[in-house]
Specification:
homodimer; 348 residues; alpha/beta; Rossmann fold; 2 domains; eight-stranded mixed beta sheet; 25% strand; globular
């Protein structure tokens, strides 16, 4: 029998830092661009009408010598019982013999790798002198978006918080965000998270109920909501703004006015997913944009495509989330756990 | 944190018996017919050209309150190093909260549940007085086909073994089959496997190099090869014969002459899979059969459809293998392991 490593939620939280998460996701995107990685079809199913969904994202990363999948489910009623709504596991196999390497709790990792995506959109598309971030959405996922962006963009000193449903949510989020960010490890080598706590401390967080005013004072915007109607109007977006649109990941979701796509430079993680389940779907259906107009972010990262050309460009990164993020981060976690002898080795 | 059970190869082999495997697969088929189960799209990918493949079968069994998936890979070169070519894991989640119940080594289980499929085809479609079985194919999977059939059909007293490539393989298989069958547990309640060993002993196994002659003396036939050309001709099939076609499970595979479908009663495990990746694909493409002609075996089991109508009918069961078999057997294994306190409970 062979052994594989089980990494539970506690172990994952203890060794997953933002820095390496962003590095893994960046690498995953670039391997895709270099055709050293492949996505398999996504399976997305409603399993109990209106109450439970699940999806399976699978693929292979030749560059990391692994393949595998992540199954994530959402059971809406769990929260009524104080239970987490989202559950996920990844399974990683080696590409040499096909043997299992590990099974990981994917809940925390999913937040982190999704945060990394939003932040990489900003790193590669926003103006390099960006100092003000706006975040639309105040759910748990928003915390990871902010963490990754602050980690990647040292120039960001102010973060607006906007909740399209309720100003009180934004206020509460503003009051609690420094504490929440402090719980996240930015860099495993940063003793007691000291540098990170200092980084958080230099940022001003401001709740707002006026998205139009907020956008006048924004260099980069992240949308991370389950919205099905556009929350941000085209007229509100000033030249030079970057938007990382993260919330839309199934058919029917939309966070920004599709007309913004008319004049924007549009990057995506995966073309096919973007036009079917991503923010791009509406602009695509309205013939505002064609699939061939879309630049995959991996091509920006490896320098094969150009994104922003001037400080006046409006740029969009539409991330629907791809298996390669999960595979790269999971494999990174397994290697780190091996090094530190963490997790449980089980015979399989 | 929550706990889930890990069942490794050794544990699975120690508690998985043929009897309960057949019961689980029978239940899975009937839940599908009662629409208390759903298959999700199958993912099937070649991951290294000509050398490695992988597929993911997923679905939900409302009747058992579980959902999940099985990932199985084939790495052809492994055997050169004395390593198993097939590796598989199943992940099972509960349908109440979406929490993981268990991760299981699926290698042995896959053989057993595939054997159960072939045997159920015989149980529901072959003449009830069948006494002679013919098996085409002498790989490891053939052993499970024979085991399940002998378990389900007490009237079978003779088994022909035919290897389309090489008579020597059939001879070797014949010489070793009783020992191999003896390693399988038929019924956990059968002390020391005694009744099972006696059952095996009353069967005559005969290697043959003449398929035509073999078919003259066959009541039921199982094909379990990776063939891509028909091995059995229409003219050789005598009236009354049943064929369980198990080998064809990807596009391009075929084991029997598609013209046999012209006059046969055709059952499948899943219509859509059958016409795309099953034995049925050739007959379907040649317009010999329509999707609406196909009877799903679950409907036979629950008595909603009729299969064989006379002793003269030729019947076919085309099984491509569905996730519901894996989910039902895996869930049965988890329940059994809980009862016996076996496997490893890990925090996740």
């Amino acid at each position: 029998m062979r052994s594989m490593r089980i990494l539970n939620d506690e172990v994952v939280k203890s060794i997953l830092d933002i820095k390496s998460t962003v590095e893994c996701v960046e690498k995953a995107y670039s391997l895709k661009a270099k055709q050293q990685a492949r996505l398999f079809s996504m399976i997305s199913e409603e399993i109990i009408e209106g109450k439970a969904e699940m999806d399976i994202k699978s693929g292979m990363l030749d560059g990391d010598n692994v393949f595998g999948l992540k199954l994530v489910s959402w059971f809406g009623d769990n929260t009524k019982q104080g239970l987490p709504a989202i559950t996920g596991l990844t399974m990683i196999f080696d590409l040499v013999h096909g043997f299992p390497k590990g099974v990981l709790n994917a809940s925390y990792m999913t937040g982190m790798r999704t945060g990394a995506a939003g932040a990489l959109g900003i790193k590669y598309l926003a103006r390099s002198n960006s100092s003000v971030l706006s975040v639309v959405g105040t759910g748990r996922m928003a915390i990871f978006q902010i963490a990754a962006t602050l980690s990647v963009m040292p120039g960001i000193k102010k973060v607006h918080i906007y909740d399209p449903l309720n100003y009180e949510n934004a206020k509460k989020f503003q009051d609690g965000i420094k504490k929440e960010l402090g719980k996240i490890i930015n860099d495993l080598n940063d003793q007691d998270n000291q540098l990170w706590l200092r980084r958080i401390d230099e940022v001003l967080f401001v709740a707002t109920d006026d998205p139009q005013k907020m956008l006048m004072d924004s260099d980069a915007v992240i949308t991370i909501t389950p919205s099905r109607t556009p929350l941000l109007k085209k007229a509100w977006i000033k030249p030079g703004t970057h938007l990382s649109c993260i919330g839309a990941d199934v058919a029917g979701k939309q966070e920004i006015d599709e007309n913004i796509f008319k004049e924007a430079v549009v990057c995506v993680d995966d073309r096919q997913q973007a036009v079917t389940v991503g923010e791009t779907q509406c602009a695509f259906r309205a013939n505002i944009i064609e699939s061939s107009d879309l630049i995959e972010i991996g091509h920006l990262i490896i320098g094969e495509s150009e994104g922003r050309r001037s400080d006046q460009d409006i740029t969009i990164f539409d991330s629907t989330g791809i298996s390669l993020q999960d595979l790269a981060v999971s494999n990174g976690l397994i290697l780190k756990a091996e090094e530190l002898n963490l997790g449980e080795l089980v015979q399989i």
